Amino acid sequence: MKKYTYYLFTCLVLVFISCSSDDSETATDDSALVIGTYSLSEINVNVAQDVDEDGTASNNMLDELDCLNGTLTINADGTWDLDLVELDITSVTGDFYAIRCGRTNNFTGKWTFQSSVLDLNASNFSAMVLNSSVLIEGVNEDLPGVLNRKFVKQ
């Protein structure tokens, strides 16, 4: 009888040990996905414009103005740096605007990244969504204004 009780007790202990809770989720640090250098690939405005007067209007001002560019660097130490040529938009009449390149500005700060969303923690910029190797910032300015900016990883 002692053998039977000992055997039953051993089985119960093994069952409780093997059924320990594994429900704790380990947080994965996916920030390595966003680290790198990105080039400005699009600055989209609300209403298509033919700024370069080639007969083809575009919402992407990089198609219209050769002087627009930008480089965003996301560093592993949690800092970022952005050199960006401003887009200067002035209303002319109706849905027509005088659009030209402004000055080049440099911005820096600290970033956070979670669930494919990059936050530059700066009032000048909205959160950016990482889609594959493209960062998309929804700006959504009123007319005349910028809808979004896109940066492609180099």
Topology, number of strands: 10
First-to-last CA distance: 74 Å
The description of the largest β-sheet is:
10 strands, antiparallel
Number of alpha- plus pi-helical segments: 1
Indicate the mean pLDDT: 86
Indicate the overall shape.
elongated
> In what range is the share of β-strand residues?
over 45%
Low-pLDDT windows of residues: 4-17
Rg from Cα: 26 Å
> What is the H-and-E element order?
HEEEEEEEEEE
Helix content: 10-25%
Query: From the helix content, strand content and strand pairing, which structural class follows?
Result: mainly beta
Essential attributes:
mainly beta, 154 residues
Short description:
This protein is mainly β. The chain has one helix at about 1-20, and strands at about 35-50, 60, 70-75, 80-95, 95-110, 110-115, 115-120, 130, 135-140, 145-154.
